[in-house]
Specification:
The chain is mainly α. 67% of the residues lie in helices and 6% in strands.
């Protein structure tokens, strides 16, 4: 016979289906215990919400990102405005939560002296227990922090209470700050927004100031370079004989003309030399007809026939031939002298053209360098003027839509939520305990369970009565047989 206790789980039917009626009956039997757990947890939650929890207030400042840049003057800005894409919006959210910006809020509002953000200034209480243990000497005292480390801790504390979010499908940011003081929350939110906008202005102003300083130095350097280039052009122009490109073109035309004349002169000189050679050959041969033909004189050709038979005519012929030969030599010498003069002129003019061409190329190169330096100088000078003007018209990329309002009602703790959660926890704990107790139950709830487990027939059962004393139980049975 079985000696170990029979658990309630063994009394359940062997089926995968959950008997909701049995479950509800079990919970209903433990309703008073569940209600007690519910009330106890709600009492604890209410005690925490109304007595222990620190009241906190949330204030919100709204900022709008300006995606419409007002152009006061048609100048290109040194620092362009923010674009309206999602990456830029997300970047600005991170800028608002940057440690540098939050650190400026800490410095401006002197939050290092605020116990809410500086744990070293908080009074020692029961919680956390480390403070109490340090007070009684069971724990060593906390190490002293450097001013920078302490400021970093305050910045960390402030970052925990600052929330920045971008409203969906908009360029609007909301800065929410939650602290124990409503005015402090509003002051921190407004200060963070103002410092953020001021930081944009400072960033643009510093960039413009740096650009102005750099442009000023660069313009001074370019001015010196331009003066040096112009001086080089002037000095080189005065040191050469080049009058100008027109004079060089005239020299080229003159050279071409002299070359043409030289070609003609050399051709005439060659003709004279050929005639003289022919006349010398005819004279040496003694043939009067050949001499007349070589001389090319009609009179001498006509006298050649008489000169061959008459001595007097021959003497006149030879005298005439000698005159023509002498004239030919004079013409040759004159033509040779002219060709030599033309050749010397060509050489001289070619040298001048070559020298002046090189001078002109170098002069034009110096002039181009001076002109390029002048263009760069003018551009940087105009850019310097534009940048100098922009220093006084810088605008932030954001603006404050609404300043924080000092909250009248605390945002934390949310008492209704705490009570609701406490009630749900109480019901869950009570129901869990009731179900666990039911699973550990070793008795029988009905005759059917007893018969199913033991395999015996139940012949009778005593109903549960409202009385506990024996006499009253007997009277109850007699009155209700």
């Amino acid at each position: 016979m079985r000696k170990e206790p029979i658990l309630a789980a063994e009394l359940l039917p062997k089926s995968n289906e959950l008997d909701l009626l049995t479950l509800f009956s079990t919970l209903w039997r433990g309703k008073w215990f569940i209600l007690a757990c519910l009330l106890l947890c709600m009492a604890l939650g209410g005690y925490y919400a109304f007595a222990l929890a620190t009241l906190k207030y949330t204030s919100t400042t709204t900022i709008a990102l300006e995606n419409r840049n007002s152009q006061v003057v048609d100048f290109e800005s040194v620092v362009s405005g923010l674009s309206a894409d999602q990456a830029s919006v997300n970047t600005e959210v991170e800028v608002l939560r940057a440690r540098i910006l939050v650190g400026k809020v800490v410095d401006q509002l002197q939050l290092v002296e605020d116990p809410e953000f500086n744990p070293r200034l908080r009074p020692t209480g029961i919680w956390p227990p480390t403070g109490m243990l340090r007070e009684i000497g069971l724990l060593p005292p906390a190490a002293d922090l450097t001013p920078k480390a302490l400021r970093d801790k305050v910045v960390d504390e402030l970052l925990q209470v600052v929330a920045v979010r971008n409203l969906r499908d908009s360029f609007v940011f909301r800065i929410a700050v939650t602290t124990e003081d409503a005015e402090k929350s509003a002051r921190i939110a407004d200060t963070l927004a103002e410092l953020y906008i001021n930081d944009q202005l400072v960033t643009k102003f510093q960039a413009t100031e740096q650009a102005t300083a750099w442009l000023t130095d660069r313009v001074s350097e370019l001015q010196i370079e331009l003066e040096v280039a112009e001086t080089q052009v002037k000095d080189y122009n005065s040191s050469i004989d080049l009058i100008g490109p027109e004079a060089l073109a005239a020299l080229n035309r003159q050279l071409k003309d002299i070359r043409a004349r030289l070609t003609n002169s050399e051709r005439d000189l060659e003709a004279h030399r050929t005639r003289i050679a022919a006349m010398e050959a005819a004279r040496d041969s003694g043939d009067v007809l050949a001499m007349g033909a070589a001389a090319g004189d009609e009179t001498l050709i006509a006298a050649a026939a008489r000169a061959s038979v008459d001595q007097d005519a021959r003497a006149a012929f030879d005298a005439r031939f000698g005159q023509l030969f002498a004239r030919a030599q004079v013409a040759r010498d004159r033509e040779a002298a002219q060709a030599a003069a033309l050749r010397a002129s060509v050489t001289d003019i070619e040298a001048k053209v070559e020298a002046q061409s090189a001078d002109l190329v170098k002069l034009q190169q110096l002039e181009r360098e001076a002109a390029a330096s002048g263009l760069i100088y003018e551009y940087f000078l105009s850019r310097l003027k534009e940048t100098s003007v922009q220093q006084g018209i810088q605008q932030a990329d954001s603006r404050i839509l609404s300043y924080a309002v000092v909250a009248d009602v605390p945002s934390e703790p949310r008492k209704d939520v705490i009570l609701l959660l406490a009630g749900m926890v109480g019901m869950a704990v009570g129901a869990g305990f009731v179900l666990l107790r039911e699973m550990r139950h070793t008795g029988f709830r009905s005759a059917e369970d007893l018969s199913r487990i033991t395999g015996l027939t139940v012949i009778g059962q005593i109903p549960r009565g409202p009385n506990t004393k024996r006499r009253k139980v007997l009277d109850y049975i007699v009155s209700k047989p």
